[in-house]
Design brief:
With about 250 residues, this protein is mostly helical. The protein is built from twelve helices and three strands, in the order H-H-H-H-H-H-H-H-H-H-H-E-E-H-E. The protein has two domains: about 150 residues, no CATH class; about 60 residues, 3-Layer(aba) Sandwich (Oxidized Rhodanese, domain 1), CATH 3.40.250. Helix 3 runs antiparallel to helix 8. The chain starts with a helix and ends with a strand.
């Protein structure tokens, strides 16, 4: 489960860790605590490393694929990029505790050309913190979990009905959110030749070109399209004040 979650599949890895911690605390010592911790870290780091290199060579294509099941793919990507923008590389240490970002952090680090050695150190710290935390929760709450499971078994059919009802409600909610945000999935585009022709025309003074390459992709020393301005997309509330209200605005990224 841990490897599956690390490569982007929707598996409840945290629940598996809690269950493993409870098993390690049982009188029969069904599982070895140190052994489970080592196996968990290996699974997470192998999955994260694969995601890192895929992100390095595929860039936003992989990020878009991972976000496709999200209600709004653009928001999914920008939320992860924003976390890197605000917290820096330490995001990798806490990413596994944050739904959505846990899947995006490793490929995003790869796409941003982070040094592999640095990635491994931060990912190791994150995997250790994540695995140890949930194993400890399971270890300390073994008796409570055992009592809860006994209650579930006693409830029997009633619990099955509750679970099925919850899944139906969740599916309806996701469908409603998907429909609500559907209009944001289509971004109008313009051909390079069309924009170049407009810049060469007498109407060029009504055109504003904006460089919106995300943090990690933008290099201060890099060249930009002549006459363009630069804004940081993860700081839009302030940056958007630099945009003219009297011009047609064209955005470009990587």
């Amino acid at each position: 489960m841990l490897f599956a979650e690390a490569i982007g599949l929707p598996f409840p890895a945290a629940i598996a860790l809690v269950a493993a911690g409870a098993a390690a605390a049982s009188p029969s010592h069904t599982l070895s605590g140190p052994g489970v911790l080592l196996a968990a870290m290996l699974a997470l780091m192998i999955g994260d490393t694969a995601q890192f290199w895929l992100g390095r060579y595929t860039g936003w294509a992989l990020l878009g694929l991972l976000c496709r099941l999200s209600m709004n793919p653009e928001t999914c990507i920008l939320r992860s990029a924003e976390s890197f923008y605000k917290r820096g590389k330490v995001t990798l240490v806490i990413a596994k505790f944050i739904p959505g970002i846990n899947t995006m952090a490793a490929p995003l680090a790869g796409s941003m050309k982070m040094r592999f050695g640095q990635f491994l150190r931060l990912d190791f710290a994150g995997a250790l913190l994540y695995s140890a935390s949930y194993l400890l929760v399971g270890y300390l709450s073994r008796d409570f979990l055992a009592a809860t499971l006994s209650g579930f078994h006693a409830a029997g059919r009633a619990m099955e009905v509750v679970v099925v009802a919850a899944l139906v409600v969740y599916a309806v909610y996701r469908a409603a959110q998907f429909r609500k945000h559907k209009k944001y999935r289509i971004m109008p585009r313009v051909q390079v030749q069309e924009l170049a022709a407009r810049l060469a025309s007498e109407d060029s003074n009504r055109v504003q070109i904006v460089d919106v390459r995300s943090h990690g992709y933008y290099d201060i020393g890099s060249e930009r399209i002549a006459g363009s301005i630069r804004i940081e997309p993860n700081n839009l509330e302030e940056e958007i004040k630099n945009l003219s209200k009297d011009k047609d605005i064209y955005l470009y990224c990587t």
